[in-house]
Each structure stands twice: as structure tokens, then as C-alpha cells.
Amino acid sequence: MAILKLKPAYKEYIWGGTRLMREFHKDYSGEKLAESWELSCHRDGQSVIRNGSDCEKPLGQYVREHGKDVLGTNCSKESEFPILIKLIDAKERLSVQVHPDDDYARELEGQKGKTEMWYIVDCGPDACLYYGFSQRVSQEEFEKRIKENTLTEVLNKIRVRKGDVLLIEAGTIHAIGENILVAEIQENSNVTYRIYDYGRVGKDGKQRNLDIEKAQKVLKMNPVVLPDSFSPHLAVCDYFTVDKLFLDGVHMRTMSGFAGQDSFVHFLILDGEGMISTLDDIQTIRKGDSVLLPAGSGTFRVEGRVEALMTRI
Questions:
Q1: For an engineered disulfide with 92, which of 15, 22, 32, 56 has Cβ 3.0 to 4.6 Å away?
Q2: Distances (CA, A) of 233 to 158, 241, 311
């Protein structure tokens, strides 16, 4: 079975930077690039296959033509592609926001909710983000702080560094800070309720819309508790499992694994270069590449100097 190398969908937002173009080989001609959707079948932006007999075919079309067996038996109950994987370049801070759970999102938005994981690919020395409330907040206090622009005073502000992992469950208030590069693994959803945006304006010169009423219905008002570890994995939840692959090219030069009938395996190459091979195919890989092994690809091998995230269902 072929190894699929993917071309992402690109998103330009006001807070984006240029690192994805400069450092991760993203072929984008705009002024700034905020997000690259590396593994996506979402209607708002699909990945496209860039190698082999299916070259230039949208990933969603490939899945329809080849059948859901390429996703694996763990996805048998899914009506659509289960996850979406992004690279995010936050040159400036993102809005304070929240995502709904599956039930609320399906009823009101016609798509899945959004639990997500952040892996800090790189960041500045004083980089921070917001993750949940720092204390119990009532609806009355929430509304008061929205009006007074003091909401961030009751948010849990966290210093981050390269390699940190955060699992943001649906309903958790959050915001990525400035000068942070993030790999995001999430449910296949594009539903975001913006709560606070620091008074910024969009390209049209108007302040961006807020979604306070919807946000209030899905927010978890209790303070969050950071998990100690997801060992032996990088992160685990009901929607995906993520592992870290690190080959230094000297002491660790090869890694073997297996893509069974239960799930596809996706590789997001964060650094380095090398090769990935199965019994049927071999492909070169480098920093910024997005590579999908369909379920049933069998034994695979990665070699070289490679740092990557591996995601399964």
C-alpha cells in the first residue's frame, strides 16, 4: 500500500507569522501564514495527496474511493474523517476561546466538537498561554469580567517551553500566546467560540465578532488540573493517541513500527530528514512533511535524523 505524502490547506489570520514558510517549507505566497492543515478532510480546507498515482487528489476523495478500511477498524463508527492535524505559527497572541463538545456542536453547528492537544514545537524564552480558569468562576462574575475586560485575571497563565504537551478538552477556555509554534492534533472540527480578543480589528478595520452567548453554554467554569503524564504516550484521549519519534542519526538511526488494520498512522515531521518505508513503498521525508500510512500498511521503518509526532486512532 502506498505511503501518502500530503500537501496542507493554508490559513492566513491576522495573528500569523512567516515561520511555516521560512522553516517548514510551506509553499504559500501570502504575507503571513497562521496555520497549515497537515491532515484534513474538513470542508473548510482539505489536504491534497502530492505523490504517486493519486497525486493532486483531495484526501477526502481518496478515502471515498478506497473505502473506510484505509482509516482502520477503530474508525468504523465514524461518519467522517476523525481528526485534523495542524501546524500553528502564533507570531501574535490568539483570542481567548472555547470549543464545544460533540453533542452541542452536532446539534447547533452540524459538525463534531473539539478536544485538542498542543505540542509546543518552539517558542520564545518568555512564552505563555492561557489554559482554563485559575479559580471557580460564576456566570455572574464571567459576565462582569467580560464587560470590564478583566477576564484574563482569572485565567490560568502557564509558561511553556519547547516539548511541552497540553490536552485541552472541549469546554476548556484557552488561548495561545505570542511567539509560539504549535502542532495541534484535534477532532475533525472547525468550531471556535471567541470570547475575548484584546480589542483587535480585522482587515476590514472592524473588531472581530465574539461568541459570548454560545461560549457560556459550553464553558467549564471550574479550574483545570494538569495531568502528570500520559506515559508511555505523549498524549492519549478518546479521539487519538500521539507518540513522539526521535532519531538523532547517530545513536538512534532507525525505528520500526506496524500500521495494522485497526488504524492509520500519521507522521508530522518536526525536524530533520530521512526516509520512511513499507514493504511496498519508500519515500524521503524532511522537516514540515505530512505523511499518512493507511491502515493495513503493515510493517514500516523510519531512518535518518528525524523528529516527528505519530498519531493513531
A1: 15
A2: 22, 7, 10
